[in-house]
Amino acid sequence: MSVAGKLEIKSVSKHYDVDQNRLQVLSGLSFDVHSGHFLSIVGASGCGKSTLLRLISGLDDDYEGDILLSGEHIYGPSLKRGIVFQDHRLLPWLTLEQNIGLSLENTGWSARAKKEAIRAQIELVGLSGFEKAYTHQLSGGMAQRAAIARALANKPEILLLDEPLGALDAITRIRLQEEMLRIWRVEGTTMILVTHDVDEAIFLSNEIVVMSSNPGRITKRFLVNLATPRDRASAEFIELKRQVLVELHLYRQQSKDAQENGIDMASLI
Amino acid sequence: MGDVSIVHTPVGKTYDTRLRDHLLALKMRLGSPIGLILPLVILLLWQTAATFQWVEPVFLPAPRKVAVAFWVMLTKQDLIFDFLASISIVGQSFIYGSTIGIGLGIAAGLSRKFEQFLGVTVDTIRHIPGIAWLPLIVLWLGIGAPAKILVIGKSVFFPLFLNTLQGIRSVEKRHIELGKVLLLSRRQMVLKVILPSAMPSIMVSLRYAAGLAWALVVVAEGLSGLEGLGFLIFRAQGLLLTDQLLVCMVVIGVVGFIIDRQMYALQARILRWQQGFKG
Questions:
Q1: Cβ within 8 Å, pair B175-A91
Q2: β-pair partners for A95
Q3: Do A106 and B181 touch (CB under 8 A)?
Q4: Which helix (H) or strand (E) holds B97?
């Protein structure tokens, strides 16, 4: 099991200068992700949630504020911070095991330790038997599992998930959510998930941060205290989903009123 | 020790599947029988034209006469020697031209400064055809092999240089980003990300350049020198030995075909990770 890190985001802002115009992308974001917790960020496209993940990954150092992992300022990319992108980003010319091995190149581990880590990760994500497969031989869901295995292989303190299931079909997505939950339990890594999918966020997280755009900011935080394993069809799950959707301005309040007042929708048509 | 037989069965494939793969590969290289229809029709037309003397025999000898000429050239003359002379020139030109082309292509691909440094020179020289260089180079190096190797090597160099450069420049940004996230060193980035992603482009130009080199050797030998298939073909024209001329043409075509299929097989093997590279 890896050492799970605590992530602190302190007054983080980010802007672009476009032809002397200042385009504010993120404005005064602050939150912590406790060691071993699973936090989801939901928000409409363009609210800056992926940008925030890029800042945490170290791919972009141009921002104001502080980002600390386990009490230390982050600087540039690091093997302590694993990332899974929306596209699996496996290199097509490498086999599955070579792709996973790529994240171990600079760990300084012995060849034997690397080999063992690759084997264990492939087993963890349920891809045993596909070690020598090339990317085009894997389905979308398998490729994304492989990407998760690659990101976890070097035992990062935190795993950043940038809409990792966004490109998958609904059924594969639900399967992989269950897989991710299992993997998180086994590995105990701190997780940050960026997603559009409110169900996914509730199903997986301890905490949900809702962001809105222009400029990207946090409008609400929800603690998810539902018992696990979570029942997607339970009343509590649906009530929380309603609250998050309201926060995202995606819930039509009048239809709820209609239900509560016992009006037969069919008779209105 | 009783486990020995179990130990070596899983190593690689069984003999039967290997044989099947081999035959499949051979079939792919030769193509389906449908590809043989047209050559047979042409042969038939040729035979008919010769039989009815639509063309004077001195300009179009019958296929049988050409086959005999082939046998005579093979057994009593130096066809093999000339063939080897041509192959040797093509082989050397191809190796030198492609090695330098890929090498400089990688260097220019990795360094914009180096690309700019070469830019004007390369783009100018590229537009002077290899054959236009030959007269000058023959003055310097004589009519032997080195002049031809230099000229053909130049023609191999350019497609390799340009495609390697292009392949490196079109590496996907997201793959570079992945390399950064995984903290790959410059060396690792080049070996594991940049070069493999340029490989399809390099392989395409290798195949193209191999065909080009084979075609050019005939021209170069025809223009200068005293050996090789190109020399034979022009000598046969001068002596009105049309049967020998046709022998050379067929040999050139068949060898070109074999070179191309071999290069294709090499390409398919190296790029086996590419989706859909079987059809």
A1: yes
A2: A134
A3: no
A4: helix B79-110
B39 found inside a domain: no
Asked if B178 lies within 8 A of A106 by C-beta distance, the reply is no
Of A57, A85, A105, Cβ closest to residue B184:
A105
| Beta strand A72-73 pairing with A64-69 | antiparallel
User: Within chain A, which residues score under 50 in pLDDT?
Assistant: 1, 262-269
Instruction: Tell me the pLDDT tens digit for each residue of B256-266.
Output: 999 999 999 89
* Mean pLDDT value across chain B: 85
Q: What is the mean pLDDT of chain A?
A: 87
- Separation in Å, CA A34 to CA A6, A171, A191, B172: 5, 31, 9, 35
* Residue B121 lies inside a defined structural domain of this protein: yes
Of B276, B62, B102, whose CA–CA distance to B199 is shortest? B102
Nearest to B81 by CA among B200, B193, B221, B253: B221
3-state SS of chain A is CCCCCCEEEEEEEEEEEECCEEEEEEEEEEEEECCCCEEEEEECCCCCHHHHHHHHHCCCCCCEEEEEECCEECCCCCCCEEEECCCCCCCCCCEHHHHHHHCCCCCCCCHHHHHHHHHHHHHHCCCCCCCCCEHHHCCHHHHHHHHHHHHHHCCCCEEEEECCCCCCCHHHHHHHHHHHHHHHHHHCCEEEEEECCHHHHHHHCCEEEEEECCCEEEEEEEECCCCCCCCCCCHHHHHHHHHHHHHCCCCCHHHHHHHHCCCCHHHHC
Domain that holds residue B83: 51-270
The domains of chain A, with CATH numbers, are 7-268 (3.40.50.300)
CATH number at residue B72: 1.10.3720.10
**Residue B26 resides in a domain:** no
- Which band of pLDDT confidence, cut at 50, 70 and 90, is reported for residue B117? very high
| Beta bridge pairs of residue B36 | none
Position of tokens 């386990």? A70
Q: From A56, which residue of chain B is nearest by alpha-carbon distance?
A: B181
pLDDT score, position A269: 44
Per the structure, the count of domains in chain B is 1
From A159's Cα to the closest Cα of chain B, the distance in A is: 12
